[in-house]
Design goal:
- It is a single chain.
- This protein is mainly alpha-helical and about 450 residues long.
- The chain is about 80% helix and about 0% strand.
- It has one domain: MFS general substrate transporter like domains (Growth Hormone, Chain: A, Up-down Bundle).
- The chain is built from 21 helices and no strands.
- Helix 4 packs antiparallel against helix 6 and helix 16 packs antiparallel against helix 21.
- It starts with 6 loop residues before the first helix and ends in a 13-residue tail after the last helix.
Amino acid sequence: MSRFTPPEAVAVEQAAAAAGAASAGRFRYVILALIFVATVINYADRATLSIAGTAVSKDLGLSPSQLGIVFSAFAWAYVIGQVPGGWLLDRYGAKRVYGASIVLWSLCTLAQGFVHFSAGVAMAVASLFLLRFILGLVESPAFPGNARVVSTWFPTGERGLATALFNSAQYLAVVLFTPLMAWLTHVFGWQHVFVFMGCLGLALAACWYWLMGEPKTHSRMSAGELQFIEAGGALTNLDNAVQNAKPKQKWSQVKQLFTSRMMWGVYIGQYCITSLTYFFITWFPIYLIKGRGMTVMTVGLVAVLPAICGFAGGIIGGALSDYLIRRGMSASTARKIPFMAGMGLSSCVVAANFVDTNSAVVAIMALAFFGKGLGAVGWAVVSDTAPREMTGLCGGVFNGLGNIAGIVTPIVIGYVVATTGSFNNALWFVGAHGLLAILAYGVLAGPFKRLVIKERA
């Protein structure tokens, strides 16, 4: 269907597609709900230290720069683990690798609740850094795994919304768990935050192994739904195929992921949006407490509004992208429009430097959150562009390079706050990433299309 398709024909095709989807079955949405819940808990586990950070730093005697280094420990390991995690997903499949990841990250979160038993402050800080490092390492297969599951279970025309849903789980994690974790910290102490989240993750792991599987062999998948998603471009039977063949990837093939101009545009865009993410899940609550004078209980409530806006932006961005594809727009343009618009809105975070009231700050952050959510279509782009034989590895490279921002951003903000005593320059640093992201998608990347790996580079 081209952009010049008559409206009547578009309506007929949309109705036919909707009727086919309805009659095919909807078990794929159960799988989507599973990765959505997994991502909610994944992000809540990452954010535990940002909520408990003020109490932890007080008990352990951490300076802002030291806390920034502890925050960055997760991202160092998360970046290191992306390519190996993607390779493991390609070799052993999402059910086994992702499931093991959930178990391990839950145990690691649980252990952080006991670092105060270490002998001395120095040992406690070292233990916390090490556990955050291990947490990042074992969580590394999660988002490449999400992208792999969406590629396997969803046709192209539904991937925008599907990826937006699991990507927007980060905001729901804030909505659901920030007030809860703030309450646990206030009433029982920061240690109970980690214990609660660790136990919740172990319960999730049991659900994962019960529900997850491959579309072609899953006992709950109907023949009609399988036919529908296959006809729409879903890479069904992907896990079974790689487990049977276990192909060896040559460096000459892998390096094409690093020499494609299109992929570098995607990687830089992900770096920029991830910088915004790490500001919100590390320093944002502390900014509200130390920079704006709010209490931890107030922050637990106030942080919900921007998160709700981010969640809404994510759903709207994914739905808009899929709608534009159904209207005949190319997938490339349909992905770029919400991303570039959202990154423009996210840059307004710097406006918080020019207002005095806390209500205005929350409103500005809510708009920036909405923009960041609107632009969260990067994983849909990966599903559309990743080589068929390297979906997990490509997702790992994408997420690994993007999450270098998780190393840089907390440390830079911590250094700026420690040296200037203010968050003003830190907000300029964060906001600049929105503009860089627009240039990456709009100028560097060019048209998005599936990368075809050649035998020899």
